[in-house]
Amino acid sequence: MATVTVDNETRPGSRAVAKYVRSSAFKVREVLDLVRGKSYSEAREILTFSERRISDAIAKCLDSAVANAEHNHELDGDELYVAACYADEGPTLKRWRPRARGRATRIRKRTCHITVVVARYSDEELAAIDARLALKGTGRRSSAAEARRRRVAASRERDAERAEDHDHDEEDLEAMDETDVVEDDIEDVEDGEDEAVAEADDSETDDDDGEDEAVAEADDSESQTETEADVESDEKES
Is 23 helix (H, G, I), strand (E, B) or coil? Predict the structure, then answer.
């Protein structure tokens, strides 16, 4: 089991390190001073309601340290506290900003390494904490650990729901593809029927045209016969 040294005393605990955080060590130390020596639940509440942007990175590092203690060393998160926390300076990214009259000003983008060490309270300290909370009429504050467990469970449920929704979407797409194929077949059949109807209409139109031509020819022959009869009658009269 991993151990940490607190006030020349070795206690079970764990640590977590966040490297190359894009913030200056000075800004991180101001927030670390607020949670040093606090229990895990109190430190998590302070970081949750802090207005500093770097509080989110520190909270993630704290959660990682507690998770290491719980899963790797079988410690209870409700019995842990922030034994030590510090920020070391990391590499500085150097940039330049153009200024007036062709000058340039250096920009220093600071980075830092955040280390959070959590340790377990001793049995005497836990008994004193329980007695103090009993006087207030409350039990040991385990909201932070329980909240973290709920967040993990909720995240896993969301991932499962997203996977199910993805599977349903794929099934719907397959069903839509099958429907499109059936609709295409129906359209092909309808197009074939329309072509057959159009061919039938064309044949009927051709028959009607033939009948009209025959009637026209008959009318022409009758008119010619009548003309010839009129001419013969005129000749006889003359």
Answer: coil
Arithmetic mean of pLDDT, 88-109: 95
Question: Would the pTM count as exceeding 0.85?
Answer: no
CATH no. for residue 97? Answer: 3.90.470.10
Kindly tell me the sign of the dihedral angle through the C-alpha atoms of 10, 15, 20, 21. negative
User: Per the domain annotation, does 61 fall within a domain?
Assistant: yes
Number of domains in the chain: 1
- Give yes or no for residue 235 having a pLDDT over 70: no
Q: Confirm if 148 and 77 have CB atoms less than 8 A apart.
A: yes
Tokens representing residue 226 in the block: 């009548």
How far apart CA 111 and CA 20 sit, in angstroms, is: 5
Q: Is residue 31 part of a domain?
A: yes
**Residue 151 included in any domain:** no
Range of the domain at 123: 3-140
Q: Which of 87, 83, 38 is nearest to 58 (CA)?
A: 87
pLDDT value of residue 130? 80
∠ CA(185), CA(189), CA(195), 5° rounding?
140
Tokens of 109: 């983008």
Instruction: Give tens-digit pLDDT for 181-193.
Output: 656 666 666 666 6
